[in-house]
Amino acid sequence: MANALAAIVGLGMIPCGKHLERSVIDMATEAVYLAIKDAGIKPGQVDACFFGNVLAGRLFGANTIGQNVFWEVGINRVPVINVENACTSGSTALYLAYNMIAAGQAEVVLAASSEKMYVKNAGLVDAGLDELDTLLGLAAPATFGMRARRYMEEFGATEKQLALVAVKNRCHAQFNPLAQFREPVTVEEVLASPMVADPLTRLQCCPIADGAAAVVVCSPALAKRLGRAVNIEATVLATGDYANPPNLAGFDTVRRAAHLAYEKAGIGPGDLHVVECHDAFTITEIMDYEALGFCPVGQGGKLVEEGHTKLGGRLPVNVSGGLLSRGHPVGASGLLQAAEIITQLRGEAGERQVRGAKLGLVQNMGGDKDGDIRACTISILSTW
Amino acid sequence: MPGIFTLPPYDDEPPALLGGFCPVCNAYYFPRPKYCRACLGPLKETRVGSEGSIYSFTIVRKKAPLGLPQPYGVGYVILKETGLFIFSLFDPATLDKLRIGLPVRLAVNTLGVDINGSPCLRPYFTPMPVMSDPGKI
Ligand SMILES: [Zn+2]
Questions:
Q1: Would you say residue B135 lies in a domain?
Q2: Residues in A 107-146 with any Cβ partner in B closer than 8 A
Q3: Shortest CB distance from B63 goes to which of A124, A149, A199?
Q4: Among A103, A181, A240, A267, which has the highest number of CB atoms less than 10 A from its own CB?
């Protein structure tokens, strides 16, 4: 669309996996380098940088590391801002980059993110030890186990429907060389894998990962000169309302973000060609379908069961393999999700290319508070 | 977890969760925030509930944190007294009984450790005694 206020002109990422020999800075540096090269810009053209990360402070005592990363590729002096927003840290960096350009305060902004999770003695991801919920045993899988249980009670979704999300995404991952786990799985294997938090089995929970991704965001005028631009039609960020009672059977905050994103982009869910949504757990993707308006409330299980969201279906979702296959390097996941949509809209996704994809949506969520999520970002991207 | 539940002995009243109450907004909170979120007025410490029913639950079977037994159960309970939905642990001895809608009541006992590794009291919900045995309460 001609009226997009910013565009993505460069993309860099490293494969998700277990990178025991690499630091969070080393991974990020490579991703940023690749994004700059992909865009064909020089470091001196960059007006500002945002860097997303969640765990480096807690795991390695390393804070404010964006400055290290960007200086490794020759960027100094310009504003560097470190972003921590739970699992939406990377997509929040993109949100901020977009807004800085849309406001006319910069022409070229880098959004990068990196996360290192494969270290000894890392427990389940929680909200931090100063939170009452954490002291009472709340960890990420528990939250989504409770959501799954409530969702199944209210809408009669089946364990098989949940498992089919994992089966679909692993099937897609076969065609993504950057995914961590690429072997297909069956419904039986998913359900027979060890129980983590009832009713979610291990293959229904995203694995951890080390990973990094970066994008170059720029003004529409510069994008026209550089070529291969992916337009940002909208990018929004919603925070939870923390209402009591909470709704564990639906993502009200995601729904609110989606309304805003569709309104800003001037499109509806029926216009989309390809989607990456937050599938940290199988139930998450099913509830995302409903909040994003792909089907009525309570019909998410049926949508995946009928094959509408697989590659070749009406609206392919998580063609990259999703978090369930890629793994979830928490602070980096938002940009890795965006990377898949950028790749699809450029028509460079190889065997997993969605034919004719010109309009895509990426949705990322993070954190947990009072039965709600802390943050949800949605970006709508296009190449039309 | 200071100040979120009444402390033993429980001679006269059963253990209860402690939250906040705003008399202006007639609003209950758990745990008690510093100010009323609706009017920013002061909150009164108050008992928000000793009984309720299960809204949802799960049993965590991996990496029990803070010395909690493995597996352990958690979920949301709808408090009978105030209607608040609150997150809580469940009685580790009754995990096989958990189901949505189950009536539960609060107990306080030593369960797991605090962040310094010392054993500590935690509140948790346990199934109400069955109706056929009312004398037991
Ligand atoms: Zn008030």
A1: no
A2: 123-124, 126, 129, 132-139, 141-142, 145-146
A3: A124
A4: A240
> Under CATH, to which class is A6-120+210-232 assigned?
alpha beta
Domain A123-208+235-382: CATH superfamily is Thiolase/Chalcone synthase (3.40.47.10)
Domain boundaries, chain A: 6-120+210-232, 123-208+235-382
State which residues have CB under 5 angstroms from ligand 1, the bound ion. B 22, 24-25, 36, 38-39, 41
**Contact indicator for A64, A47 with CB cutoff of 8 Å:** no
Beta carbons within 8 Å of A276's beta carbon, 6+ residues apart: A317, A318, A319, A320, A322, A337, A338, A340, A341, A360, A361, A362, A363
A-to-B residue pairs, Cβ atoms closer than 8 angstroms? 94
Is A194 at the interface with chain B, CB within 8 A? yes
**Taking a C-beta distance cutoff of 8 angstroms, is the pair A144, A196 a contact?**
no
Q: Whose structure tokens read 């009444």?
A: B6
Summarize pLDDT for A262-313 with one digit per residue, the tens. 999 999 999 999 999 999 999 999 999 999 999 999 999 999 999 999 999 9
- Residue-range definition of the domain harbouring residue B98: 17-127
Q: Is there a domain that residue B109 lies in?
A: yes
Taking only the tens place, the pLDDT of each residue in A325-364 is 999 999 999 999 999 999 999 999 999 999 999 999 999 9
What are the residues facing A368 on neighbouring strands? A373
